Amino acid sequence: MRAFAAAIVAALFLLLPIAAQAQTAADILSGNRELVEKSSRQTIGPVIAALAASGDPQAAVILSAWADKGLGIRKSDGAFFLITATATGYALKTPDGAGAGQAARADITELRPNAGVRGLIAAALVQFRLSDPNRSTRLAALTAIARDASPDHLAPLRASISGEADPAIRAQKQRIERLLTLRFDPDSAARVAAIESFAGDLGLDLRGALNPLLATTRIATTGPAPAGANLARDLRPGTDLSEDEAYALLVSVGLAPARLSRADLKAALIANIQDGAVAGTPVAALNTPEARDRAYTALETAGRVPPAATDAEVKAAIAAHRFHAVYAEPDAAVTTAAKAVLDGIETRLAAMQAADLALDALSLASIYFLAAIGLAITFGVMRVINMAHGEFIMLGAYTGYVVQLFITNYTLSILVALPLAFAVTFAAGVAMERLVIRHLSKRPLETLLATFGISIALQQLAKNIFGTQARPLTAPSWLDGALVFNDIVGISYIRIAIFVLALAFLCVFLWLMKRTRLGLEVRAVTQNPGMAASMGINPDRINMLTFGLGSGIAGIAGVAIGLFAKVTSELGSDYIVQSFMTVVVGGVGNIWGALAGAAMIGTLQKGIEWLNPSNTLAAQTWMILFIILFIQFRPRGIIALRGRAAGD
Questions:
Q1: Does 320 map to a domain?
Q2: Whole-structure pTM over 0.90, yes or no?
């Protein structure tokens, strides 16, 4: 008791200078020179706290210098100085910031605080940085706290909130304060209130703060869980944990001996053979695992082998003990609140993940629709299996690349590239129809082989002109980034632009087909070419224009796809299979069918990829198998076309 009283008196004596001196940083240093000079984490805390609470603007400068080994004591008189190393010694400043000349290195004792003292100083500096006039300094302090929070940060953070004038920083401070409260506040009710205030929040920082509160450790007991333990759940060996894990837990806490391996058992029995028997059991009788276990137990009882558990003893030990998962957080109210909030978060996360998956599917469907719309027109009207359709997509992408070589303004270049790609691929489509397709009318196999050959030729031509290296097609700066709704749901602006472009083409196509003479003639030829010819419509002309129109739309799709995909000679081959699947599944020759097919295939592909994210090739395979099954039951597609496509 006398020693304890003496320690209290000594501590009070050490603190007297802090209370007695004026509230300036220089006076606090001078009054506690011995503590500062021989500082340690156990003794220096009151001095650092007094500096932080002094209200002296120089306190932050002194603390920063101290942490960075920029504080020294002159040996001759014990005066403190802010020191800066020079070639000949130190440049000196008084704690008030006034210049004090030069000093030799031998005249100054440089203070070198250890890691513990630097940690106390860093915590004290938080309040200065959180209230610094410079906005970036305050943000940097908040970032540092969020990255590596400690209980020491809570009080200065709370103190800085009321004086914060910036609404954004104030909101950030309030959020971080609640995160620190739920982790470090000694008041259970305050922690629970902070946790409940985050109900419905999906922030990653919140989940990072709540998950440690629900971390559990496994314990083994001979009865109920220890009194005062915050029990998460009872564990059943064989269900919640394996028997090996259960017994290893018993061994780790000293409730059971180490398990006996088969090799150790055999070696122990061999080493203890005496007169043809082991512990009274003839060697010939040790022909079963049970007999060998009994022999080892007898040796163990006789003290001839170290204690170890046989298989039977392992099972008995597991059955005789109980296993529990116990929260590392001792406060049950805190863990209950944290679990409730996290359960709500998981529910909302599932909904958000479903929404994000739906956005991805919608984005992919718009790409497939844009790629397939031209094929839907040519395949529906002419019944031509155009294997070179993907190469028209590739030609459109390369057209956009060439345009950007001459027009460096990316927005203007895209505006020029879209109609130019249409014109280039429209002309290529018309030329193909006039030179090849027309001469293979009603011969689908020859048409397929011919267009496949043209596809290979166009790919090789692109390689000869542009090389095999991927070429950039750069999107305008206003398409950079993504529209982010929260940490889970987001979609890139490029994909939004492609979705809008697909909608625009849908509207243009519907107008063309429903409101123009060309559309009327195309619909007539699609449904009954013979009757259309008898009414004065030239089916050959319609076929040519239709093929050119479908090819031109593929070129525009190529520009759009090239904004996020690599522009190479194989670009089109990546989309030709999906384009055909879109047309066949949706319904040949029907724009609404193409839209429905694109939506179905995009959703199906994203769904399969979500179920098996590590293997995209498997996703493609499963999708094709599903489509094969689908067309067995609905061979004409989702929306069947009446007329020639229906077999009339």
A1: no
A2: no
CB proximity list for 67: less than 8 A, separation 6 or greater: 113, 118, 121, 122, 125
Judge contact between 582 and 601, C-beta under 8 A: yes
Contacts of 34 by beta carbon, 8 Å cutoff, 6+ apart? none
User: Domain of 412: which CATH number?
Assistant: 1.10.3470
373 shares a domain with 274: no
Is 62 inside a domain boundary?
yes
**pLDDT, tens digit, 9 for 90 and up, residues 478-528:** 888 888 877 678 888 888 888 888 888 888 888 888 888 888 888 787 777
Residues (pLDDT < 70) of the chain are 1-23, 380-381, 487, 589, 613-618, 640-648
* DSSP one-letter string for 300-352: HHTTSS---B-HHHHHHHHHHSEEEEEESS--HHHHHHHHHHHHHHHHHHHHH
State pLDDT tens for residues 85-133: 888 888 888 888 888 888 888 888 888 888 888 878 877 777 778 887 8
Tokens read off for 562: 């090239």
Both 267 and 158 in a single domain? no
**What CA–CA distance (Å, rounded) separates 302 from 312?**
19
Q: What is the domain extent for residue 288?
A: 260-308
Q: What is the DSSP string of 134-193?
A: SHHHHHHHHHHHHHS--GGGHHHHHHHHTT---HHHHHHHHHHHHHHHHHH-S-HHHHHH
The verdict on residue 190 lying in a domain is yes
Task: Kindly state whether residues 640 and 617 are assigned to the same domain.
Answer: yes
